[in-house]
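name: query_chain
kind: protein
chains: 1
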Amino acid sequence: MADAIPQLKPLIISAPFGNYVQPEGCTATLGTFTAARRPGRVWRVIRTVRYYPRLRAWVNKIGLRNPGIGWLVEKTRAGGIDVSDKIVSVHGFTPDDWWALIEKSAALKPLAIELNISCPNVGELNWPGDLFTRAVATGVSTIVKLPPVNYELAFDDAMRGGVRTFHCCNTLPVPAGGVSGKPLMPVALQCIRDLRLRAGGTPITIIGGGGITTPGDIDAYRDAGADHFAIGTKVMHPKYLWSHRGIAPLVERASLSAKSMRHNAQ
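structure:
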């Protein structure tokens, strides 16, 4: 394990859910923020998130609806939000967007910046050639959130740019939006195994997520090679929105897994 972000908790709440649910013992991910405001944040979430019981899957077409990075800057500077223990997730549509997002989010001194280059609801995946180098140069820890498929080019580019922490992975692209939940899990697990092999002897840190609902799921991600564990649509259930107690078994198992990995690495 490459302990690139020592303060990162074993269990992470993925964006956009980290905006609303921030349980004790977890690291919340804020965002995903874009350079300009993309209106319709709350009602878009409500209208586009659907659960399919037979598939045990969630499908959403939120499309990065958010108030814009300027909103976060204002809230943070006014003392309304503390980002020092949180990940700030960003996505740019143009190179200028990316440079503004990196500069503004790094100035806030968050725990880490997550470059979300893999949202399936915003069109073709693309990023400027020097994105990763410039993000790492800010001195703020950088995470790259990869897609569940066709991630090889992004991973290789990020590695060359100096990134050593990866979030595997985003939702599966389908015509109706992005699929998360149990159908994503085997794909994410294979992605993690592939990343370990692709990294060769270079130490990397992997945040694994997709379909985690039980402590046993965390064990599966640990065995595949994940160092940290991310949950998202798990917290869409009302009992998690209104009470953090339901996440406690996952926090405990993630913490035990992290301790076990550190012990084995010594």
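note: The chain has one domain: 11-265.
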